Amino acid sequence: MGLQLAVVLERGIGSAQLRVEDDDDDGDGDSEEDKSYYEHYKPKSTANDQPSAALVIDGKLIADEIRFRIAEQVRRMKGSVGKVPGLAVILVGDRRDSLTYVRNKVKACEDAGIKSLVTQFPQNCKQDDVIHALSTFNEDPSIHGILVQLPLPQHLNEEKILNELKLEKDVDGFHPLNMGNLAMRGREPLFIPCTPKGCIELLIRSGVEIMGKNAVVIGRSNIVGLPTSLLLQRHHATVTIVHALTKNPEQITREADIVVTAAGVPNLVRGNWLKPGAVVIDVGTFPVEDPSCENGYRLIGDVCYEEASKVASAITPVPGGVGPMTIAMLLSNTLDSAKRAYDFT
Ligand code: GUN
Questions:
Q1: Residue of 172, 282, 302, 336 with catalytic role
Q2: Whole-prediction pTM
Q3: Range(s) for CATH 3.40.50.720 in the chain?
Q4: Which family does it belong to (predicted)?
């Protein structure tokens, strides 16, 4: 078992239960620079001693259900068109987290009957080699989705590389045209970025009304914070973005009915940052040493779960909340792309 295998403390109403989790959580947050600013805001003491009341939003369960339905549709596509969706992944270097994410994505494709190809380049590879691989996948009709695992090494120009991606295969939704269409009223992006789409799906499937609600998104990364705020607006929430330079982030966050955190700072959001009854979606994932765990590690999020679960009405755990949804949404985007390519409904 690797670092990503964590013993999870799942908290329910007045109960706690140990579960072994083998699905590492995908996630992303703000830049290193932003993170150091957030440190300034960390309160020094814990605030809340009330009994636990929050509904635990089980992302693993919801993602499993979505993946089951996707597998059904892939079988149907194979039966009627004789083809399956195909996903190509480009991985540069050997970052441990990226390797884990890619391994989990490939495994999920396999489970759903989706073909996957991984091209891995060494850390010091040339940009032209990455672009060449991308162009090959762009032209391959059996590939419907292409994913460049981020972050890329410093010497590579992420913008230039992502611009090469064929819009119709941008299953991450990171292409500026997809992001631009997501931002504009009356326009439809071909793909919505996976983690933000997963967050909204969790809210909807948990019966949380978004329309007319005050939502705060903490973090403004291109991968999570920005597209999540755009997507919440599309669902008619009133959205405020809290970032590293925001004054009084606790005060602003306390106004929110829905809080989505993608700051990349462990335990940033304490119980006293939340309005009682708020719904909390935690995108953060960090391994922390814990000798009491089987493998010496456990994962924690941006939110101080112990405190927040006593104030919120519903909350995602880490792991087992947003992470599994990111992968489910990647499969969903890849299937949608193949459906478009084969005119299959
Ligand atoms: N790195 C962290 N999250 C993601 C993601 O959703 N997609 C890609 N391509 N890279 C990531």
A1: 172
A2: 0.87
A3: 6-60+193-322
A4: Belongs to the tetrahydrofolate dehydrogenase/cyclohydrolase family.
